[in-house]
Structures are given as structure tokens and as C-alpha cells.
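Inputs:
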Amino acid sequence: MAGNSPRVGVLALQGDVREHLAVLSALGADARPVRRPEELAAVEGLVLPGGESSVIDKLARAFGMFDPIRDAIAAGMPMYGTCAGLILLADRVDGAIAGQRTFGGLDVRVQRNAFGPQTQSFETGLAVPALGDAPVHAVFIRAPAVVEWGRDAEPLASLPDGRVVAIEQGALLGTAFHPESTGETRFHERFLAHVRARRGAGAPAF
Ligand code: GLN
């Protein structure tokens, strides 16, 4: 079976790498940490974990990973970003630190630390119709929110105030919260479905 398992990576420069590896492995994926371009070239999809987006950006450049990840996104590699990972997939960021860059690919504007100092962390039950009837138990930790999105980006979940906290565009998926820490597996399954679909379409290796 191992040969058929989706080979996926978790960008392992900073952040909650282990939690994502555990969820992906539990779902039957061949999941490994990715730190170097050769490791990226060996996977079919990549998770960008939560952490600190400005730090992951700096480390990606220091490790020679920035351009390879951008190129992989442009080539259609499925990616799933949680929290800081969502920021890294966004084309536009409000509240970025000076010089902070993102890989981009999602035609969205995110606001960093969108919930202010009073509400740095909170949990809520979130309706995500694309994942079925059961609500998602969503944990937000100094989370961003999507405040604008382009026509090709499809919001999957919003808060009562209208801000979007889960979004998808083609093979790119982003959530402002952390399913990897609550036993929620449906977003990771959706990411793996993108990987399988791309393989089924006979896509060349990256
Ligand atoms: N506030 C962090 C950032 O801007 C994201 C927090 C998280 O990933 N839990 O990168």
C-alpha cells in the first residue's frame, strides 16, 4: 500500500509541524518533514503549519526554499496552510512586518492577528457546509482572517461578522484555525483528496 499512499510534506522550518505529520500519517499518507528543496521535490503536496509567518518567511529564504515553494504553487502542487500557513499562501497581507513576504497563490487579503489583543485565542463551533453537517471545532490562536477574496477563491467558512476563516482556490486550501490540534481530520482529508486528484490527472512529478 505504501507505494499508493500520497507522499506529502509538512514545511518544517518553524511551527506545529509534528501535529500535522501525526494527522496526515493517521489518514494513511506517507508524511514527512520538508526543509530542503530536494525534500520538496519528493512530495506531491505540502502543508504550511501554524507558527509565526514572518519567521517562516525568513527561514524559507535562508534555507533556499522560498522560490522552490513559489514554483511548486505555480505548478499546481496542492497545499494546505493553517493560520501562519494561510498568511503565507495569501497574495496580500495587512499587518505584515517590514519586508515580510508571502509565497502567495491565494487571491485573498488576510489581516494578521485579526482578533486583537483581547481575543488572542478563542474556540468556536463553525459550520463548514463543504465538509458535511457536523460543525468544525475551530481553535483560533493569534489568528488571521480573510477580509477580501477574488472571484476564483471560494470561502468555506465564515464567522458571524462575515470574515472568512476557511477558503479554497483550486488545489490551495487555507484555514485561519488549527484543525490539527483538535482531532478534526476533514481539512487534511480534503487536502489529500487534492493530491490524489492531481495524481489521477496524470500530472508530472514536481
Ligand atoms: N499570528 C501569527 C502570524 O502572524 C499566526 C499565529 C498562528 O499560526 N497560530 O504568523
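The mean pLDDT is 94. Flag for discussion at group meeting.
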